[in-house]
Amino acid sequence: MTTMTRPTVHKRGTADRIKKNLVSGKLSAVLILLPPALILFSLFVILPLVDAAYYSGFSWNGYGSPTDFVGTQNYTRLFDHSVFHTALWNTTKLILVSLIIQMPLALGLALLVYRKTPTNTLFRLVFFLPYILAEVAAGLIWSFVFDGDYGITASIFQSLGQESIYVLADHQWAFPAIMTVIVWKYFGFHMMIYIAALQSVPKDLIEAAKLEGAKPRQVALFVQIPLIKHALVVSGFFAIIGSLQIFDIIIPLTNGGPSNSTHTIVTYLYTFGLSRLNIGFGSAAAVVLFVLAIGFAFFYQRATTRGGRA
Amino acid sequence: MKNVTTRNTLRVILLILVASLVIAPLLASFFGGFKSNAELRTNPLWLPNSWNAENYIAIFLDGSFWRYLGNSFFISSMTVFLTLVVGAAAAYVFSQIRFFGSKMILSYLLLGLMFPFAAAILPLFIKVRDLGLLDTYWSVILPQTAFGLSLAILLFKAFFDQLPKELFEAAYLDGCSYLRFFWSFTLPLSTPILATVGVFVFVQSWNNFLLPLVVLNDRDIYTWPLGMMQFQGEYLTQWNMILAFVTLTITPAVIFFLAAQKYIVAGLTGGSVKG
Question: Please, which residues 201-260 of chain B have a Cβ atom closer than 8 Å to chain A?
Fold first, then answer.
């Protein structure tokens, strides 16, 4: 009995020591590796968002500390402002265009180029190219395209014998022009998501459908598209969340004009909140943006997972 | 069989048509940089009459062009470096060490995946100003890093979780500490995911406009998108100069894209949550 115990005690001692080392090693590892992320994230992501909610209750120009508490007045002013209505409606239009025009276009092209051949790779690269360009650069190039004196649209009008239109200064055409640029800029991104999904569809399923006499269109509609539903859900999510945040591309194109008709939520927030130093008012717009984004994300996730179950 | 060939011809014609529409504005920009403004008026799209590179040369010789690119390069590189180091360190903790509350802290750090960056921009401006960072590189680098962390941690943790556990057990028996293991095993074994996240973060940072616009006023530290807007403001309707400038600034991005397309496509489509 005693001879049995001794080595056990000895063993337990080493085990404890190892365990202790492990714990202390763990502790120091956690204390060294985790805080940088926590501090940066809290300071520059969480805190600003909390601040936005706080500032939105004040009338404040950003100097000193906010003292002029106005309750919900910033929000009532915001929802009474016709430009904010335009911004909300424009953002809605961007979402609709993404879902109704951009995604089907991307899907159609993905079906045409998903197979791995050298020409397809080349087409894919070209289609994806606009996505990697900076929005500001893309916006500037297109503001040239739409220029009423120099642009490509101008020479199209002239060749048709018509007076050229300053597309981006025209109430009727400015926003459709912006939507064109946005489809041009982002469809390649959605296409790439679909291509990745299409390439993972088992080939024998497609072959089987073809042997049954299905036409390519039928294969796409009844075999491939149902099988990449997940990719469609993901790209729809990006389309909505991305549309909510459109800013960069508007600035070089119209800067929100003519007469504030092409604002989005973010250009509104920037123009009426930051550049005029209405920090409280702009923060109210930020809170609305935040709520919309989180609300969409939540609703979308519930809607799509429920759809997946059914 | 004949049906198949016509179908394929139609497909290729359609693709060429779309590809031309996609690439036409970019080519017009490239060609436009070689034209005079007068030529641009009559011929905005096609090849220039003569390949006169003086607009491009003028921009090359202008010091501010290089300064903008240099500023952007420094800011993007630092953002990548910090995101990789800080993000991988945190992800390593969540992947290797279980402790009380670790799951909650992870969920907290992943909250950023849902948050629209623009919603934080006003308080961010105030915060950066109060920290005395306005008009410094850090005013862009730190918030960018913070906003990139969630995605980085998510992707790193998923990758670290797949590394063989036996490796750590063996290393620990040889007296290797957690920190040491992180540095000598986890990081070197994770180059694919480090590259993917790094390229993604670099592109995001390189193209970022809103944050620098808000926190940088001093032209000397402008990033290139700000510099480009500044240039456009100075040249207004001298489209040939503006197009030359745009072409020159997007060329590095296009070359980078062609060289690293594998990582870019993987990072931007596979991992991107911010779209």
Answer: 203, 206-207, 209-210, 214, 224-225, 228-229, 232, 237, 239, 242-243, 246, 249-250, 253-254, 257-258
